[in-house]
Fold each of these.
Amino acid sequence: MATRTDPLTLEVVELIGTVVARYYEEYEEAAAAHSLTGAQARVLGLLSLEPMPMRRIAQKLKCEPSNVTGIVDRLEVRGLVERLPDPADRRVKLAAPTEKGTRTARQLRESLDFAREPLAGLSDQDRAVLRDLLRRMLGMEPAV
């Protein structure tokens, strides 16, 4: 497949990079407001969706399981995460948010205005088109 270096493609790539950079900057600021690192906030946010074993967290965040263990250890000390036996395999421990952790993850999500505010300025149809284009870029199935 030939790489596209036409001006439009280059501009789109630059805009995507700017969006990602702004998102990460705001995410780090939101995490710091809760005395968390960005990595801790990402793990907490992921766990707020569903409890999961360390290995799966590491796969989703594309990092080493030993790094995740350290992050979960620090979140556990803060009372944001707990380790529970996996009902499907009692040898496996799941990391799960505590009530305080769930509340903190929600506050983090609610404080992220960068993506939400500009998206609110788009019509439902425009947001659906953007979503579908992003899903297509990522090789995901179209939304139903």
Amino acid sequence: MSTLAARALLAVVFWPSLFFFWFLGPFVFFLLSTTSSEVCPRLETRAEFLDAANGTLPMLVLQNLIYAVPIVCLVFWNRLLPDPARANRIVTCIKLFAVAAVLGALWEYGSSLVCDGYGQPFFSPVWQITSYLPIADLAVNIPLYILVFSLGRTFSMREDDPAADAVDPGRNAS
């Protein structure tokens, strides 16, 4: 397979995954992964509550695997078109992604533990601090989104000089 075809295939995977998974996915996964308000009032014991919160863990792992698709595309793109400057930026993306994944998982898991239908203090009040994690997550995700978008745009663009491909209207006027 040619390099251009491989780059095009990566672009076909990268752009939809970036927009659907990163921009729309958080809303869907948040609704699916946390203990919902309908479930909370039915939980009466600490064990039931912990089981419900722990039941969200597979969804959190799946969520982070799906979110990693654009990062993986960037790594493959860099293998096709190696550039040390881009490689450093991709490493930064990977680090930011890891921090965002941990913050997001703590927030979603913690919000599951904070939800108690009867106001019973099942767990340490420390879990209530997780309500502030979206602010930290946003502070990490904004630079991550900008960096991933700019790298994806750079990798998706043609490397050749489009001006050289243009037809000079003065030369064909005979």
Amino acid sequence: MPDRRTAQEALDRLTVDVADWPEQGVTFKDITPVLADHHAFSAIITALAAAGRDDHGSVVVDKVVGMEARGFILAAPVALALGVGFVPIRKAGKLPRATHAVSYALEYGEATLEVHQDGIAPGERVLMVDDVLATGGTVDATRQLVEACGGIATGVAVLMELSFLDPRRLTGDLPVSTLLTI
């Protein structure tokens, strides 16, 4: 089974920086080469899933949520690895039934996220998964959505944390597991 270091090395080796995308001054971290490499992808899923286990390897969450869009790619296999359900956190207007919604600031704009009101049952423990922790706004909004459903956000697992943007000012005391800090 791959270890955390294998996942970190794969991220460092395969992530491609794309300057000035999606707008001038932003450096986009393209993880598609990581996803295309079976061994790298397996290693990162195993490493991210560790955030949903205790020190003895027992699963300590009931659901995994993934934030649109790259968080979906990571969170669904993490949920499978943990043997729990997956719940998508979508952009506004994408879910067909009654939702909870939260608006927040992004690194380069604003957004609104939604979750089905019945997506998380009261008392369920939830691991939040995304690709990049930038400003912390997406994680904070997602935690609010989990709590609006009555769930308990137990932590967040991400591939990369952009520490220069000080994202932990918005994540508060929420445990953050990151594979690579930039």
Amino acid sequence: MTEASTYTITGETGEWEVVVGLEVHAQVTSNAKLFSGAATAFGAEPNTQVSLVDAAMPGMLPVPNRECIRQAVRTGMAIDAQINRWSRFDRKNYFYADLPQGYQISQLYHPIVGEGAIDISLDDKNPDASGKTIGVERIHVEQDAGKLMHDQHPTRSYVDLNRSGVALMEIVSKPDMRSPQEAGAYLAKLRSILRYVGSCDGNMDQGSMRADVNVSVRKPGEPFGTRTETKNVNSVRFVMAVVEQEAKRQVAVLESGGRIVQETRLYDPDRNETRSMRSKEDAHDYRYFPDPDLLPLELDEAFLEECRASLPELPDAKRRRYESAGITPYQAAVLTAEVEAARWFDALLEAGAKPVAAANWTTSELFGALNRTGKSIETSPVSPAQAAELLALVADGTLSGTLAKQVFEIMLETGQGAAAIVEERGLKQTSDTGAIEAVIADVLAKNADKVAQYKGGKEALFGFFVGQTMKAMGGKANPQVVNELLKTALA
């Protein structure tokens, strides 16, 4: 793919380049936690989804959840990453109130997934011309910590261990991004892939996917500068804001003679600024060592083949398939951005709709109606089969474009099928030349002055005659027949 355009910040001493890497924590979609059978449902009452393992009771031993491992491997395969047949769990030791064990089980030295790549685009109308490949360094699985609750008591903090032990994939990019737009495009594309694969629901507002944003600045061509890490950013828009604001802050510090401290920061969306949280964790000694309670993971070929065979058609492949059917690159990008929309559209094609007409109707009429009514594609009152029936009636001449819009509005309100509405309400388009000629004769007789102007060279009036004819026939006349008969009558 071609290189995306470079983003720079102009300071008093010249141009500065931004260097960005993301560490994305994605909660694995599974039936239980990484090392226990406890549930992981969002929004449960505090401390109701905690097993003895999660609470670190003495003598409790972890047992890896096969589905969590499977989902991590499938995610790696989806980004063409190296799958490590042998990997190992390590203990990362630190002490905090929401970490009952006093350590986190992670994978520092031998992750389950190695290097891969994600292609991004900054222009949906021309994806290939504005593309860039972002490297992924690794994906490892680890358990989440619990959560401290500071708003339940005026002088105390409470601990909720529902998230303790939840399986996370940490997806670490290479420092290949050079602008807020590239960081946003990377995170959106990664989220889309995870949702297609089914390994994470991508609900950033619920905390099941969040990003740590590493930002540094440098003069173009110089070595990387000192980076800061802004933790737990939970939307694509906020990630872009962090990159922009943190880069500007660093440039201001450096140009005033200061130096960047390697530290952990937090983002305040209300003030649109980052704030120092603590000195960078590199200064700490986590005393990593292999977890003595867990054997290394060894993946056999049968397991890997099952993972590979279970992968769905991914966004890029689906987009290329749509484009090969004549759908525009922009429409293909819109239709494949969210997995639910892509599945709905595939069902529409499977129901017999023609690709180009289906794409035009879905991206304009359907998406417009859903936005207007505040519904999602999953809650659409019109099913793919009903939409295919409507488009078929347009294709065979039963409905004009205008009538199809009327029928669609009725479908949205009632949930009825298009054919039933057409029959019940008499909305069928007419191609009866005799009836249309009679109406045209009446329209021309009533507008003799405009007929004279048209024949005198004012050809723009042709649209007026078409409109008057269609209006007189209640929008039921076949527009193509109307145009042909009008041209004859006005010749």
